[in-house]
């Protein structure tokens, strides 16, 4: 149809449309070669979603068409570097070849779901496509060919770039795109093929200078090729964005350039080998400490990556050579260097390889490259490194080196596990040397505390508080500390006693609390906690009865910690001891009121502690000869106490008594704080100035060894109230003792300490035996309890239940003995048919 024909076209605005700009003047007609049109400016609040164009047809003359084509303004949006859409107004572009049979255009702009504006634009169009001048295609291609040749020869182009771009656009509009693309590819291919000759003839041996020159030449060729293809693509951009884009099988002009370079230059076996060898040689030189051109390496490796031959041609060989290099280096340096130096070198190598990835290697190489270094320098030598140097690092407390060891071993598969094993072995071995050596008993607990502080610090700082290392450390401590049964528990109890005893000026209250917390951590590792309880109770009794406790608050704090750790049953007797001391204070208040009502209150101020026998350690009573006044006071108190608590029995413990005596010397009066045995000896010198050992023993009734220690403290100590004849440190039979009337001392009140007899082996055995006896009772009770509930049980199941219930270590042989004992006492019996089966006897 020539007139009256209408057609509708739906167009969508590009994402870069700017509704806020001012619209330029629209052309009065739409070009058949490159149809563009601009919509008038639209308010910013209205966003066009789609538009529909309707038009009616009028036909312009051939002359008008001919006049329009040459004067058509160039579309700068197609020039490289300029955005293909207009920057002002609303611009739509349609590249489809259409016959335009309209004389008016109606533009509908939709915002949201409703039409908001209608604009009618008068346009003029053609009914037939104008014919190109003769030889236009050939002439245009000749121009383009010359331009491409100039670019490839790096000479100036004699044509205007806009003109060349317009020429490509005109050819594409007249369906010459396929031929144009083919011709362009052919020209580029011929040029690339010509480049290969210079590389094939280039001499190359494995010499650093020759390889460097070759690499620079190949790099220059690549850079030139990239620059040329960018220029060529700028001219043929319209072809690239229309014809090539619509044909998915065709590579873009840029990709075509990469394909040609890959196929004709890099894929050449000789060129590729020389290139890869040269790159690897440069990297090797850099690894050896030489300075190399990193920008050249970056450019060449980027080229391989862009050409998609990086992995197959370079990466595989690179990783193989890296593997060989570090395998040999690891073997050599493990022999030559100490562990800290070696680990420092490994860390340095890892940093260097990481830097190479950042600087010039492809990022895909990072994982296999780092894994290769870790495997060859660490993974292959994990055990050797730890066996050679871990113990010395831990012994010398080299925190920075241990931190580096942990960090490096954490990078390797299985590294942490083998480090854990050696860590555990070190703790067990070191701890065992502390525990099993009797010569170290004196300092065992302090060394254990110091060792625990050390490993805690290492775990916190070096091992990043790793739970696995913490748990394994606890297991290792528990293992070695129980290799010597009972002794660590005994020594920990004595260590606590030394810290809680009066006169300990080493620590403030806060420091003492901190020490007790640390002791409780060591205490947790001990299996035989009942041994600790026995020795702790004995020492606590001394502190309470002699008044040597440094702080009641500290004592109760320790008791609270033990209760929290072991339960109320563990501390019930210890709590009873404190309760007795408090009740005794109340009793003494009442006794003093009672004495005030007596007709003859006496000159001695008596203080008595009432101890419940089940709470306190067992003391052997010792009968001594008290003077009459003391005996009288004892009877008064006995009458008073039994009057309030009928049915109770009092037993005096003379070994725990102490007194304050007043004495007169030539220099003046003094007061002495002494034990009851010292008191009895000194009171004898009111009756005379000289007595023999035998006379004193007869008069006081004190046991022989105890009397010798007592006389030793009075005549051979710092405060020599008595003079021994003959002189000497030890008290022998026949020695005579004379009152020292010339005694001098700067203090008024003097405390004469009893010579502390070292705890004999018999006493230690006695305490341990008592613990063992208590354990037997607990085992018996547990067996009866289990059998009463189960009625019938096999031997293995019974033993398993006992291990679950008992809180102290016990040997299977001891359990068997207790079972036999209960069978003999008719608590249980064996099955007649199965001797490993037991029945409870009600």
Automatic annotation (TrEMBL):
GO terms for cellular component: Cul4A-RING E3 ubiquitin ligase complex. It comes from the Eukaryota. Keywords: Biological rhythms, DNA damage, DNA repair, Host-virus interaction, Isopeptide bond, Phosphoprotein, Ubl conjugation, Ubl conjugation pathway. Residues 487-715 form the Cullin family profile domain. The keyword Phosphoprotein applies. PROSITE patterns: CULLIN_1, CULLIN_2. One of its GO terms (molecular function) is ubiquitin protein ligase binding. The keyword Cytoplasm does not apply. One of its GO terms (biological process) is protein ubiquitination. Pathway: Protein modification; protein ubiquitination. Belongs to the cullin family. This is Cullin-4A.
């Amino acid at each position: 149809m020539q007139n009256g024909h209408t057609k509708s076209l739906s167009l969508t605005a590009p994402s870069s449309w700017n509704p806020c700009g001012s619209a330029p003047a629209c052309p009065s007609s739409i070009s058949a070669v490159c149809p563009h049109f601009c919509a008038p400016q639209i308010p910013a609040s209205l966003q066009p979603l789609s538009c529909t164009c309707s038009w009616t047809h009028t036909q312009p003359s051939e002359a008008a068409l001919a006049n329009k084509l040459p004067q058509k303004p160039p579309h700068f949006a197609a020039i490289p570097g300029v955005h293909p859409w207009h920057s002002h107004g609303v611009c739509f572009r349609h590249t489809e070849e259409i016959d335009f049979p309209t004389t008016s255009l109606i533009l509908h702009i939709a915002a949201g779901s409703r039409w908001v504006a209608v604009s009618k634009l008068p346009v003029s169009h053609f009914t037939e496509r104008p014919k190109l001048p003769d030889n236009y295609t050939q002439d245009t291609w000749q121009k383009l060919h010359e331009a491409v040749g100039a670019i490839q020869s790096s000479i100036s182009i004699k044509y205007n770039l806009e003109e060349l771009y317009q020429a490509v656009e005109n050819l594409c509009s007249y369906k010459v795109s396929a031929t144009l693309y083919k011709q362009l590819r052919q020209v580029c291919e011929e040029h690339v093929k010509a480049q290969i000759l210079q590389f094939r003839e280039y001499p190359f041996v494995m010499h650093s200078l020759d390889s460097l020159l070759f690499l620079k030449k190949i790099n220059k060729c690549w850079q030139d090729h990239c620059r040329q293809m960018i220029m060529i693509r700028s001219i043929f951009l319209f072809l690239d964005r229309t014809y090539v884009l619509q044909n998915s099988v065709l590579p873009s002009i840029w990709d075509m350039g990469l394909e040609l370079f890959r196929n004709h230059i890099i894929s050449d076996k000789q060129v590729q080998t020389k290139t890869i060898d040269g790159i690897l040689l440069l990297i090797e030189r850099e690894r050896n400490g030489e300075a190399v051109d990193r920008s050249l390496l970056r450019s060449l490796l980027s080229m391989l990556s862009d050409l998609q031959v990086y992995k197959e041609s370079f990466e595989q060989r690179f990783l193989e050579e890296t593997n060989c290099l570090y395998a040999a280096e690891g073997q050599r340096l493990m022999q030559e260097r100490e562990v800290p130096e070696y680990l420092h070198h490994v860390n340095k190598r890892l940093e260097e390889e990481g830097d190479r990835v950042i600087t010039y290697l492809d990022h895909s190489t990072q994982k296999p490259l780092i894994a290769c270094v870790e495997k060859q320098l660490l993974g292959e030598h994990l055990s050797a490194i730890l066996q050679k140097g871990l113990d010395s690092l831990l012994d010398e407390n080299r925190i920075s080196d241990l931190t580096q060891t942990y960090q490096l071993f954490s990078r390797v598969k299985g590294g942490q596990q083998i480090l854990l094993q050696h860590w555990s072995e070190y703790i067990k071995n070191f701890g065992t040397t502390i525990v099993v050596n009797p010569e170290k008993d004196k300092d065992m607990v302090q060394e254990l505390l110091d060792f625990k502080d050390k490993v805690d610090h290492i775990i916190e700082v070096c091992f990043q508080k790793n739970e696995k290392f913490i748990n394994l450390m606890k297991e290792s401590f528990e293992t070695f500390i129980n290799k010597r049964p009972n002794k660590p528990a005994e020594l920990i109890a004595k260590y606590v006693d030394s810290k809680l005893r009066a006169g300990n000026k080493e620590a403030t209250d806060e420091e003492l609390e901190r020490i007790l917390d640390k002791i409780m951590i060591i205490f947790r590792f001990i299996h035989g906690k009942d041994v600790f309880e026995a020795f702790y109770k004995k020492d606590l009794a001394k502190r309470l009865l002699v008044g040597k406790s440094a702080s009641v608050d500290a004592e109760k704090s320790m008791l609270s910690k033990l209760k929290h750790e072991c339960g109320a049953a563990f501390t019930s007797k210890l709590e009873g001891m404190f309760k007795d001391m408090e009740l005794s204070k109340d009793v003494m208040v009442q006794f003093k009121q009672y004495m005030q009502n007596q007709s003859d209150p006496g000159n001695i101020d008596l203080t008595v502690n009432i101890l419940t026998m089940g709470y306190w350690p067992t003391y052997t009573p010792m009968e001594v000869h008290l003077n009459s006044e003391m005996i009288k006071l004892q009877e008064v108190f006995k009458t008073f106490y039994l009057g309030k608590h009928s049915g109770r029995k009092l037993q005096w413990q003379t070994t725990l008594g102490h007194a304050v005596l007043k004495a007169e010397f030539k220099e003046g009066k003094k007061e002495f704080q002494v034990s009851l045995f010292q008191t009895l000896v000194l009171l004898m010198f009111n009756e005379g100035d000289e007595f023999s050992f035998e006379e004193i023993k007869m008069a006081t009734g004190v046991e022989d060894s105890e009397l010798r220690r007592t006389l030793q403290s009075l005549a051979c100590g710092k405060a020599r109230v008595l003079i021994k004849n003959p002189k000497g440190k030890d008290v022998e039979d026949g020695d005579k003792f004379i009152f020292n009337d010339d005694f001098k001392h700067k203090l008024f009140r003097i405390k004469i300490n009893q010579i502390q007899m070292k705890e004999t082996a018999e006493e230690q055995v006695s305490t341990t035996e008592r613990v063992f006896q208590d354990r037997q009772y607990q085992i018996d009770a547990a067996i009866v309890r289990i059998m009463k509930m189960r009625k019938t049980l096999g031997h293995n199941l019974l033993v398993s239940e006992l291990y679950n219930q008992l809180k102290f270590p016990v040997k299977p042989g001891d359990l068997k003995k207790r079972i036999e004992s209960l069978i003999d006492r008719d608590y249980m019996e064996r099955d007649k048919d199965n001797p490993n089966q037991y029945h409870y006897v009600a």
